[in-house]
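User: I'm new to structure prediction. If I give you an amino acid sequence, what do you actually give back? Let's try with this one:
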Amino acid sequence: MVAISGDVYTQEKGTPEKEKYDFYRKRLKEQFMYYSQNPDEIGAHLPVELIKVDKDGVKTAYWADATWWQGHYIAMLALEYAVFKEQNIPTDSTLQELRWAVATLKRLDRNAESYWNGKDTVNGFFLRDDIPDYRNVDLNVDIIDSDYESKLGDTLTLSNAPSQDQIWACYLGFSLVVKLVDDKELVNDVTELAKNFVSCMQHTDVKGNKSWEIVNPVTGQLIQKSGDIKWLQHGHVLAAEYITNMDFHFGKSDNLWWRTVWNFVKNNCLIAKKGNFTWYGIYCCSVVGNDWGRGADNCYDWIRLQCEKIVDMRPDLNQNIIFPHLPLIAAILHGYDGDNPISASVYESYLSSAPEQGGYRIREGGKVLVSDEPWHSLSLFCPWHLNDYGYFNMLDYMLLYNAYNFVYKMNKPEFEVFSKSSN
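Assistant: Good question. You get back a string of structure tokens that encode the predicted 3D arrangement of the chain. For your 423 residues, that looks like this:
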């Protein structure tokens, strides 16, 4: 049995899926996060992407895309809240954790400008993380490897600034809060975050020219150029409109040309066999915005077909379906009136095959030990990450477990077609 330190990351074999879920949840808060219960505290409530252990036993907590993971963490908690509510299980603890997770994003927005020696402003320009080196004590690791720590004092850094891929994942979390969580203040918070994050990508220069790009408001430095974002600008607008019920068209994002570009990108994204984050971004915007392409007449079926096509394009990923959580999120957000759902057995296979101690890829005794497929990559959210060495946070399992249960096991009338497939 592989473990990070002693019995901290181990448990008995043969654990049912619910106990496995509970174990991962406890492990996330106790080992993969500085869970201080104070979201205003620097470095708090940001899940660790990866815990590395070298041949000498030195442990490193690693963050690279912390706000990307935070979006998935918020999505997982919103789904847990919805499942607990359906099962008449107390939701207070989950709701509080969700509030802290959202407040953490607010902290990263609120405190960003001072990182570049400017005046802090709540404007959607955020830090990816704010993990200082002294948090190693709280996390029981030897080393902190974070964008905050590695680039602190570098006024030209691009590494700890927003990018559109960070925002894609936040759309998933924000939309599920809006859909599933009956807490007005929390819904207002994610709505405001979405508004600010999208506005951060909308830049007007001194001549009044409008473009979709991210510019550091302190230094004036270009963080992400228009050439990266403009192809998906219409998709960003659709996702933001679902979350906020506001119009976010900016510049030329709603003219016929850019709507046509978005439709072309959406329908042809699988031309590129190494699309990775580009695929994921298109699908996140499509799922949240309920916008699908050719080959289906609803978002669920289109996403399902796309995810199945990637399996044929990328056999190296060794999965039955890529991004298995996205069709479920599409059904939860927008319903499903089709008659061809993914079989429950597909999800049950994912859940039952998850390693009891969590996913890993480590070097031990001159060998590379890797958890069994499909849990051999860093995450189901980014299955192309096949060469990361360390222990994985298992947010993918937890989100998938909650989404599967909400759709297939709650006996909700709108999901009857899914319930039948699990019988």
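You can read the tokens as a compact description of the fold. Here is one thing that stands out. Residues 108 and 127 are 5 Å apart (CA to CA).
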